[in-house]
Specification:
- With 409 residues, the chain is mainly alpha-helical.
- A hairpin with a 2-residue loop joins strand 2 and strand 3.
- The longest helix is centred in the C-terminal third of the chain and has 37 residues, at 328-364.
- It has helices at 2-9, 11-20, 96-106, 111-114, 117-124, 127-151, 177-192, 201-221, 227-244, 248-257, 261-274, 285-309, 328-364, 371-374, 377-406; strands at 23-25, 29-31, 34-36, 57-58, 61-64, 91-93, 197-198, 321-322.
- The N and C termini lie far apart (57 Å).
- 59% of the residues lie in helices and 5% in strands.
- The strands form three sheets. A four-stranded antiparallel beta sheet has the order 1-6-5-4.
């Protein structure tokens, strides 16, 4: 069993999967059981002509790097386009269909998806489904993020693995929170939707399984997680959903009707943000977790306020309702709501982030541009929590009322 776990957590299995999908690391070679970088003078292209990098072909594939074409006059600095000394490993893509498929699939676990998909459900279908998704997503993500920093198991090594993402590379690996989040979102929607809208359950199940599997495979393809990380992420998410499922309705009722609901949501989220496990080095996990908790708390308060005001914006009539017909007029209306809503959320994010950072940095006597200062707990936690709690409030309370003013609802 121990050998199996080591194999599933090993980098070689991930590298084999990448090569099977047509993704090859070409910065290092395997010699006598060790990964060896080529000599410095063995360059893929001349360091003085970096514009050739995007056009270089290798066999039947393309060499892809994260370096941008440069038109600057500084063409000689550090030979950064040579193999072995480039800022990021260079790799060869021989199957561009899988490359783009898995990159798009990985995007289902990024902030852009979180700030668009659940709100779109709220604005165009049913706020109940969005509320349920946010509740489960917040719980699952907090547990997953905290487990990473408690277990402290590393991500796959590069080489032999190609790393296609860099932002979270300093984080620990197990469990995969991408897998946990997307599994929770798709299957929470599948389990919650039958009582709200009419659809063929088998089709919904197929979609949930396919999307979840794509996200799982994308974490291997991008080199960010081992097979064990992915498997544990899916199992932990499924276990949490299975254990909490009998209490979803009870929690919904307390969230909307209890007079202590808004205070409890804000206090609990702040407490969990400030008591998040400490590390000996900075990673994005604490900030990301605070973001998640802030969104969850803001939405919870917002839905409570809507219930008190008697305007929940939920579908009228007998449930489950039929799915809206796909007409040009309906698509235009939904697109208009989506654009207005996303603009409102992005504007809120920018305004609150700027304002909260300015206040906190002024209070502590540091520059807003000081990245290290912004990573300190006393600045990072309150500024992220304030920003994303505001986003949750605007999403749940104000956007639908803005639709009424604009004639979109």
């Amino acid at each position: 069993m121990l050998k199996l776990l080591k194999y599933l957590h090993g980098s070689e299995l991930v590298a084999k999967f990448q090569r099977a999908c047509g993704l090859f690391l070409i910065e290092a070679s395997h010699q006598n059981g060790n990964w060896v970088h080529p000599p410095r003078e063995t360059a893929l292209i001349d360091a003085e002509t970096p514009h050739q990098l995007s056009r270089l072909r290798c066999g039947n594939g393309h060499v892809i790097t994260n370096e941008k074409d440069s038109n600057s006059n500084d063409k000689h600095k550090k030979n950064e386009y040579s193999v072995g000394v480039s800022a990021r490993p260079q790799y060869e893509v021989r199957n561009r269909l899988l490359y783009f498929l898995f990159l798009v699939s990985a995007g289902l676990g990024h902030e852009v998806f979180y700030i668009t998909f659940p709100p779109c459900l709220h604005w165009n279908l049913d706020p109940f489904l969005c509320r349920r998704l946010v509740n489960i997503w917040t719980m699952v993500m907090y547990i997953g993020q905290a487990l990473k920093d408690v277990l402290k198991l590393p991500r796959p090594l590069s080489p032999p693995v190609v790393k296609l993402e860099k932002r979270v590379d300093a984080e620990y690996g197990l469990p995969s929170t991408h897998v946990m989040a997307t599994t929770a979102i798709f299957f929470t929607l599948l389990l919650s939707a039958p009582s709200r809208v009419q659809f063929q359950f088998e089709v919904g199940l197929l979609v949930a399984v396919v999307l979840s599997v794509l996200v799982c495979l994308s974490r291997l393809y991008t080199g960010m997680h081992s097979a064990l990380d992915v498997i544990c992420g899916a199992l932990i998410s499924a276990t949490l959903m299975l254990v909490t499922y009998p209490y979803w309705e009870t929690f919904d009722r307390l969230q909307l009707t209890s007079p202590l609901s808004p205070i409890g949501a804000l206090v609990l989220a702040l407490f969990l943000s400030y008591t998040y496990p400490e590390l000996d080095h900075y990673t994005t996990t604490r900030g990301d977790t605070t973001t998640i908790l802030g969104v969850g708390a803001g939405c919870s308060v917002g839905y409570w306020v809507n219930e008190r005001l008697g305007e929940t914006f939920e579908p009228q009539g007998v449930l489950p309702i039929p799915l809206p017909a796909l007409t040009l007029g309906g698509l235009a209306l939904a697109s208009s709501r989506f654009v207005v809503g996303v603009v409102a959320l992005v504007a809120t994010r920018q305004i609150m982030k700027t304002a909260s950072l300015w206040v906190l940095c002024s209070w502590y006597g540091v520059s807003v541009k000081d990245i290290d200062a912004r990573r300190r707990k006393e600045i990072e936690v309150p500024y992220k929590f304030t920003t994303y709690t505001s986003i949750g409030l605007v999403h749940s309370i104000l956007v639908n009322r803005l639709f009424i003013v604009l004639g979109l609802l």
